[in-house]
Amino acid sequence: MKNKLQAKRRDFLTYNEVVKISDAYLFPLISGLYELEGYEIHQVQAHDGGRNLVYTCEKESVDAKILRIAFLNDRSREDFLGEVEYVRYLFEHGGSVSDVVNSRKGNQLEEITHNNHTFFICLFNKAKGKMLVENNYQYREEAPITEYYYNCGKVLGKMHELSKGYTPVHRRQSFFDRFNAEYIDKLIPNSLSLLKEKLVMLLTTLEDLDRNNETFGMNHFDYNDGNYSIDFDTGQITVYDFDNSCFCWYLFDLAGLWTQGMGWTQFEPEAGQRKKFMDDYFEVALKGYRSETAIEQSMLDKLPLFIQVSLMENIVDAFEVMRNNGEEPSCDEELSYRIKCLEGDIPYMGFFDEIYSCEEPFEYEEREI
After folding, report:
1. Which of 292, 272, 250, 243 is nearest to 98 (CA)?
2. What radius of gyration do the chain's Cα atoms show?
């Protein structure tokens, strides 16, 4: 099994191979396409499962840029065009996002082919400020943390409000293009039969939900504090990394906003206190969201359902990363925890359940596959 997977993945270049190709071949071409002569270019460390090479491009008295080189063949030219078109639309209509930068040819997307492998190149303006983790998860001193919660909701609400009026030229994929019973059956090992059954049941529930303009549209689909920067002078949030953006229910991004709040209270030993914090946190974030766009209470009542959907996305992504790396499927403590929550129909990612441990947050004993 492992040899077959590895043989199949040789259609893909490894991360280190791409770094060497970029240094030797791509950079001179990219520099000319985007007039990057004189910029200091530094590689950004990739996260686990990353699908791109990312670089910061800095030059004195010039706004910094972010260069992205996509090297996996899991996305088409149409996918990339749909992404940058949506980013430009948001930026031009007042969304707080990092705008895409046109090349000297006037293109938002450039392609370079080397040894029959196509690389998709994008350049973005670097967001002002820095990520929370770069500031040791300390918010700006002169403002209450509730300002941050509110702004997180407000920026997301603005994006969703703009999405309600968005008609794409290059259409991004829809939720069910990636999440469907056939794909899950192929991706998830047969030894996890209960998980596969629960995922299909979840998909069946989603298929019956209304998909009107007020509830379903373009989502960021990975809205978290690793994908935006904060201007610590003003509190302004600027969003980036629209790699996963797709058409989905807006409540998916809101479920992501809810789960993001768990990090602030994950070490609290009392479930009741964790519940109180989450209620207060999400009330403030939702006020920010509703300051920009409307959402019916009947849809908000489905938040627990979409937290389960968020779990499904995490699980599918984990198995995709293993597949893309040519690894045999396995379950570490974090993946085992997510699977346990779905198999056991445990709501709210088990955050208020006996399964949760504040000493080992979101972990469960490893399981064999």
Report:
1. 243
2. 21
Distance between CA atoms of residues 343 and 310, nearest Å: 14
348: DSSP letter: G
165 and 110 assigned to the same domain: no
What are the φ and ψ backbone dihedral angles of 70, each rounded to 5 degrees? -90, 130
Question: The domain that contains 237 carries what CATH number?
Answer: 3.90.1200.10
Spatial neighbors of 236 by CB under 8 A, at least 6 apart, are 96, 128, 129, 151, 230
Instruction: Say yes or no: 279 and 187 in one domain.
Output: yes
pTM: 0.94
Per-residue pLDDT of the chain (369 residues; tens, 9 = 90+): 333 333 333 456 788 888 899 989 999 999 999 999 999 999 998 776 678 999 999 999 899 999 999 998 888 999 999 999 999 999 999 999 999 999 999 999 999 999 999 999 999 999 999 999 999 999 999 999 999 999 999 999 999 999 999 999 999 999 999 999 999 999 999 999 999 999 999 999 999 999 999 999 999 999 999 999 999 999 999 999 999 999 999 999 999 999 999 999 999 999 999 999 999 999 999 999 999 999 999 999 999 999 999 999 999 999 999 998 889 999 999 999 999 999 999 999 999 999 999 999 999 999 988
How far apart are alpha carbons 67 and 98 in whole angstroms?
12
Structural domain tally of the chain? 2
Q: Are 198 and 116 in the same domain?
A: no
Do the domain assignments include residue 225? yes
- Domain membership of residue 359 (yes or no) is no
Whether residues 50 and 147 fall in one domain: no
* Rounded Cα gap, residues 177 and 246, in angstroms: 10
- Residue 64, Cβ density class (10 Å: 0-12 exposed, 13-18 middle, ≥19 buried): middle
Residue 24: CATH number of its domain: 3.30.200.20
| Whether residues 148 and 204 fall in one domain | yes
Whether 356 maps to a domain, the answer reads: no
Locate 174 and state its tokens. 């829809």
Q: Supply the range of the domain harboring residue 56.
A: 2-125
Q: Specify if 106 maps to a domain.
A: yes
d(CA 193, CA 191): 6
